[in-house]
Amino acid sequence: MQLTLNLIPFNFHLKRNILFLIAIIFFLSSCGTRKYTVKSDTKASKAADAMANLQSKPLYRFITDWTGVRYRFGGLDKNGVDCSGFAFLLEKEIYGVTLPRISREQANVVKRKNIDSLKEGDLVFFSFGGNDVDHVGVYLNNGFFVHASTTRGIVVDDITLPAYQKVLVKSGSVN
């Protein structure tokens, strides 16, 4: 009888410890199941949406192939490219259009369009350094364009940002 009395407290403590251990394991595993989501209104997700909504799959492939290539003034290859060089290459390869090599001259061959009327592949021109055109990008859709940023290389950006709106001087399609 003495042996039975000693087992009862042992079983009680064992069951309590096992239940406590199960509770800890459940608590710790539940922390790992929390889902983290990216806000759908972030700049990156909107740029990704613009890329996903491209009608031209060759354009999509061209941009993804060049994304991240660094900026190099006068450059015309994947070792570095400037904005007008990128627009020159894109328009030639995707649309079969031969543009002048310099952004200021590219602006001269574009038929002006209101920014709200732009279509995929149209050009957007900026003047960061005064009155003359000194930067060009290619319009995608939903207010996004692709260009060779001097600091970030080939990127997709939001043309509705104030920094771009202040310096946008012309937009349109090639004549």
Describe it.
This protein folds into two domains: 1-36; 43-174, Alpha-Beta Complex (endopeptidase fold (from Nostoc punctiforme)). The model is unreliable at 26-38 (pLDDT under 50). 42% of the residues lie in helices and 21% in strands. With 175 residues, it is an alpha+beta fold. The longest helix has 30 residues, at 2-31. Strands 3-8-4-5-6-7 form a six-stranded antiparallel β-sheet. Strands 1-2 form a two-stranded antiparallel sheet. GO terms for molecular function: cysteine-type peptidase activity. Keywords: Hydrolase, Lipoprotein, Protease, Signal, Thiol protease. InterPro entries: Murein_DD/LD_carboxypeptidase, NLP_P60_dom, Papain-like_cys_pep_sf.
Give the tally of β-strands: 8
Stretches where pLDDT is under 50 for at least 5 consecutive residues are 26-38
Mean pLDDT: 85
Q: At CATH's second level, what is the architecture of the largest domain?
A: Alpha-Beta Complex
Helix content: 40-55%
Order of helices and strands: HHHEEHHEEEEEHE
CATH superfamily of the largest domain: endopeptidase domain like (from Nostoc punctiforme)
The fraction of residues in strands falls at: 15-25%
Number of helices: 6
CATH topology-level fold name of the largest domain: endopeptidase fold (from Nostoc punctiforme)
Tell me the strand order in the biggest sheet: 3-8-4-5-6-7
Tally of individual domains: 2
Helix-strand makeup class: alpha+beta
